[in-house]
Specification:
Number of domains: 3
Shape: globular
Number of helices: 18
Distance between the termini: 40 Å
Strand order of the largest sheet: 12-11-10-13-14-16-15
Largest sheet: 7 strands, mixed
Keywords: Methyltransferase, Transferase
Strand content: 15-25%
InterPro entries: SAM-dependent_MTases_sf
CATH superfamily of the largest domain: Vaccinia Virus protein VP39
GO molecular function: methyltransferase activity
Protein name: Class I SAM-dependent methyltransferase
Region (Disordered): 1-27
């Protein structure tokens, strides 16, 4: 089964000594993910290999591959798999790996809907998914992709969906928090890799909140059933469900009901300063036009970039410019409302080259999960060819009290060796800088000066271009970073 997104299968197949285990793939001993160069590989034991071949030969699975809803996957020739493994798959490489706590509300909802759509297609064909985790989904721009091919397994009659609890904890409950009580879910998911427990949700949804859509069934009833069955084995629970008449048709009806619920959930956050930043930021038309020309020239002056980071992306104005000159752009913004609006706009346009993410750059995503390595930190996932840091430095250095040397070290560390930094310095006399400084003690930032900033840039690379905007209070730099 050849998939267009994969490398030519005629290319050399990696050997066992080339394989590097994926730190986030160790919980299922039947199939594990490895990396070899640019290849993403999945090793299967005898049972998992049999499940894969049945899956590949089914009627429902190939259309999911063809439409890109499941990541591109093909089986490598016999004898490829290392000792103890029965088969080896090669997967499409995702342009940039992100985590659910970096997504906006609409992103999480669309990821949940794709998961349910896939399960709804699998059940009538006699398959289910063993997992329901949000981490089984990734993005190609604004298109969600299901990546855990090893999660598919034959369905046993009378067996409930094994992934239901994970789906609730990492997808449904975060959506309910945002939609029903306006609480941002990102900190909750970042704090717990397994998501939000039913008992935690239950304490938040008491009184009349119990009657909100989805709460009584999927929070309170789920929590009650979970407590009642805590001491029983899976086999006993399965037998009880079978005796009670639980069937494939009932499972399918449950999935359809869940889909209807998730589709109805929505969250319209209150307006914030950042939502309308392009109008309120104070740039003159001359400044804006000059800045766009500088950024465009910087992006166009080098060979086509594989990955560009737009840090402090706001409404995506410069991410869109970058997408004309790069294979992929990750647009990072702190405000979930701004990211949500950008995502909805880009998705409506069918944009596959820009991935918007929610992240506070003064507190970026750390490593998480088992030994802090199961989910890689933001810094470990970057290595961009170009980093855009426009109208950002003053917010970190003055607004968040991060010393200027630390700011520059952070920005340059996000680039690949030999990469490029396009950065804007807002002078202390700029109105925005004065506004930030007005809330700080006098003299707290003696080194926030243009000469000190330029010296730091020179220590990290070569300043290739420098341009002061017409207003005279902001300067743009194009820096070739040291290898």
């Amino acid at each position: 089964m050849a998939i267009p997104h994969l490398r030519d299968a005629a290319q050399p197949v990696p050997t066992g000594t080339d394989l590097r285990p994926e730190p986030g793939s160790f919980r299922d001993p039947a199939n594990q993910v490895f990396h070899a160069g640019q290849d993403v590989l999945r090793a299967l034991d005898e049972t998992a290999a049999a499940h894969w071949r049945a899956l590949a030969g089914s009627d429902f699975f190939p259309p999911l591959l063809a439409t890109g809803k499941v990541c591109g996957t093909e089986e490598l020739p016999p004898g490829t798999a290392p000792e103890r493994w029965a088969a080896m798959l090669r997967h499409e490489r995702i342009p940039f790996v992100s985590h659910p706590y970096e997504w906006s509300f609409a992103m999480l909802r669309d990821a949940a809907l794709l998961h349910l759509e896939i399960l709804r297609a699998a059940l009538p064909a006699g398959f289910t998914t063993k997992d329901g985790s949000a981490y089984n989904l990734q993005w190609r721009g604004t298109d969600p992709i299901f990546i855990d091919v090893g999660s598919f397994a034959p369905l046993r009659e009378g067996e409930p969906w094994a992934g239901y609890r994970q789906f609730c904890q990492t997808l449904l409950y975060p959506l309910l928090l945002n939609a029903h009580i306006g609480v941002d879910f990102q900190p909750w998911l970042r704090a717990r890799i397994d998501g939000i427990e039913p008992d935690q949700m239950g304490r938040l949804f008491r009184g009349t909140r119990r009657l909100l859509p989805g709460v009584l069934t999927h929070v309170h009833l789920h929590g009650s059933v979970q407590r009642r069955n805590a001491g029983r084995s899976t086999a006993v629970v399965r037998e009880q469900l079978r005796d009670a008449g639980y069937s494939r048709e009932l499972a399918l009806a449950t999935v359809r009901g869940m889909e209807k619920l998730v589709r109805r959930l929505d969250h319209q956050p209150p307006e914030s300063h950042w939502v309308d930043y392009q109008r309120t930021c104070g740039y003159s038309e001359d400044d804006r036009a000059t800045k766009e020309r500088f950024v465009t020239a910087a992006l166009a002056s080098a060979p086509r970039r594989r990955l560009v980071l737009d840090l402090g992306a706001n409404d995506g104005r410069y991410a869109r410019l970058a997408a004309r000159h790069a294979g992929y752009v990750v647009a990072v913004e702190q405000d979930p409302a701004v990211v949500d609006r950008l995502y909805r706009t880009l998705r409506g346009e069918g944009e596959r080259r820009i991935l918007p993410l929610v992240m506070d750059l003064a507190d970026p995503s750390p490593g998480g999960g088992w030994r802090g390595r199961e989910r890689a930190s933001f810094a470990a996932r970057t290595g961009a060819d170009t980093v855009l840091a426009l109208a950002l430095v003053h917010h970190l250095a003055i607004g968040r009290n991060v010393p200027l040397p630390e700011v520059i070290s952070c920005l340059t560390a996000l680039a690949a060796p030999g990469g490029r930094l396009v950065v804007e310095f807002v002078h202390p006399e700029d109105p925005m800088a004065r506004r930030l400084l007005a809330n700080k003690p006098d003299g707290i930032f003696p080194d926030y000066r243009r000469d000190a900033f330029e010296a730091l840039l020179a220590a990290h690379g070569t300043v290739e271009q420098r341009l002061e905007l017409p207003s005279g209070s902001r300067t743009l730099y194009q820096v070739a970073l040291g290898g």
